[in-house]
Design a protein that fits this description.
30% of the residues lie in helices and 22% in strands. The chain starts with a strand and ends in a 6-residue tail after the last strand. The mean pLDDT is 97. It has 2 domains: 82 residues, Urease, subunit C, domain 1 (Roll), CATH 2.30.40; 302 residues, TIM Barrel (Alpha-Beta Barrel). Helix 4 crosses helix 7, helix 7 runs parallel beside helix 8 and helix 8 packs parallel to helix 10. The longest helix is centred in the middle third of the chain and has 18 residues. Strand 11, helix 6 and strand 12 form a beta-alpha-beta unit. With 424 residues, it is of the alpha/beta class.
């Protein structure tokens, strides 16, 4: 089947059509022709006036809760939410039940993903049962299709285990780590600072992240291996990674979108939807993270979708689960950041760089390329009402809010998946 997308502005630094308004003709899953005068009467025409198109966005690490917690999310609902949010690919973390730690587990995710509009990128557990004691069968999982290894929010306390993982998996797939010292964060509920003191909540200090980044960088340097830090949240963490890159250490890092736009004062009403891991920090940290995006210290923007049901969030703050579900609204909530860093840099941080980190194929908007595209309008105002949300999750704090910036759909696997129409 042929599709032609009319009057759409390309955002792709590597494309000769960057910043140009064009028509894009697609046959099957391949871009056939691009130009302002391209047309084909036999193609299904879709007018994208006032919209932009970029290579399909890739989310680095999100939890689809499947298998084991399908009441919170499943592959089908998570994929629908991802597509509505503009993502053509998602790295799915292994903290499920059972844990994703075998060839069969990876096969399960891939087969489920084949039934959806997005590309599923399984991330295998680094240690068995996420306990940080014994390495998983990484080679088997890699051969089955795992793109990286990560214990999700579980800290790797054992330095020797991390060293062994980096040495063993260096030529297999990326090692991802969540930098958090468990002894320094035990019982912590939010960022340690003035707001936590005011609210009477135990804090999670910034240096609990930074001390682990420092240790992990030493291990990566010693093993001459590549390491990826997931969810950097502090100004000190950004500085450590920037300095490591200047020294030639093989390191990459991402920041969760909420750490770019929210500070810990969002918790003054004890809204558990803002209880995240890593926690919301200060405005100084937000500013440092944005600067890190600009100067290359931070390579990518992640969403870190962590779905929960009402029971896990509508309870006393100390007992509420960590995590925010926001695949469908992340682009809109980042509108202010995008104005600061530019749309082209945003696309680099949410599309081309995540692909490099996960080692999945790059996508460019040129003739002959595979058509894996995200269409969006940065000016559309809309609200996501709970009854229209595609995710099962109950913990999206942006539900019902007026937002600016709307994904209009994705094209992937030879099909156009239109996002739900915007409403106010």
């Amino acid at each position: 089947m042929k599709h032609i997308f009319l009057n759409v502005t390309v955002v792709d630094n590597a494309s000769p059509y960057h910043n140009k308004k064009v028509n894009i003709l697609i046959h099957g899953d391949q871009i056939i022709s691009i130009g302002d005068d391209v047309f084909d009467e036999t193609a299904k025409a879709i007018n994208m006036e006032d919209c932009m198109v970029s290579p399909g966005w890739v989310e680095l690490h999100s939890n689809f809760a499947d298998p084991g917690f399908e009441d919170r999310e499943d592959i089908k609902s998570g994929a629908k939410a991802a597509a509505a949010g503009g993502f053509t690919g998602v790295g799915v973390v292994p903290s499920t039940l059972p844990v994703i730690q075998s060839k069969g587990d990876v096969d399960y995710l891939l087969k489920k993903g084949d039934e959806t509009a997005i590309n599923m990128y399984p991330i295998g557990a680094l240690s068995k049962d996420l306990k940080g004691e014994e390495l998983t069968e990484m080679l088997d999982m890699s051969n089955a299709g795992a793109v990286a290894f990560y214990d999700d929010k579980k800290a790797i306390k054992n330095s020797n285990l991390l060293k062994t993982a980096l040495l063993y998996a260096g030529n297999i797939a990326p090692i991802m780590v969540h930098p958090r010292n468990p002894e320094l964060t035990e019982g912590g509920q939010m960022n340690e600072g003035k707001t936590s003191t005011f609210l009477g909540l135990k804090g999670i200090p910034a240096f609990a992240e930074e001390v682990m980044i420092a240790r992990d960088l030493f291990v990566a340097q010693y093993t001459n291996s590549t390491i990826h830090f997931a969810g950097i949240s502090t100004s000190g963490g950004v500085n450590l990674i920037r300095e490591a890159k200047e020294k030639g250490i093989q390191v990459s890092a991402d920041v969760n979108f909420y750490n770019l736009i929210l500070e810990d004062s969002a918790l003054v009403e004890y809204d558990t939807n803002f209880k995240t891991n890593p926690p919301l920090r200060t405005q100084d940290d937000c500013d440092a993270l944005i600067l890190g995006l600009k100067d290359g210290a931070i390579d990518a923007i992640a969403i870190d979708h962590v779905p929960h049901d009402i029971e896990n969030k509508r309870c006393e703050f100390d007992h509420a689960s960590f995590g925010m579900a926001s695949l469908e609204t992340a682009f809109a909530s980042l509108s202010g950041v995008i104005k600061t860093i530019s749309m082209a840099l945003f696309v680099e941080k949410i599309s081309s760089n995540p692909r490099k980190i996960l080692g999945v194929p790059s996508i460019r908007i040129v003739e002959g390329a595979i058509a894996e595209l995200t269409f969006f309008n940065p000016k559309t105002k809309w609200k996501l009402e709970k009854k229209k949300a595609l995710s099962k999750a109950a913990n999206n704090p942006f539900l019902g809010q007026e937002l600016t910036g709307k994904v209009m759909g994705i094209f992937n696997k030879g099909k156009f998946v239109e996002a739900p129409a915007p409403t106010l």
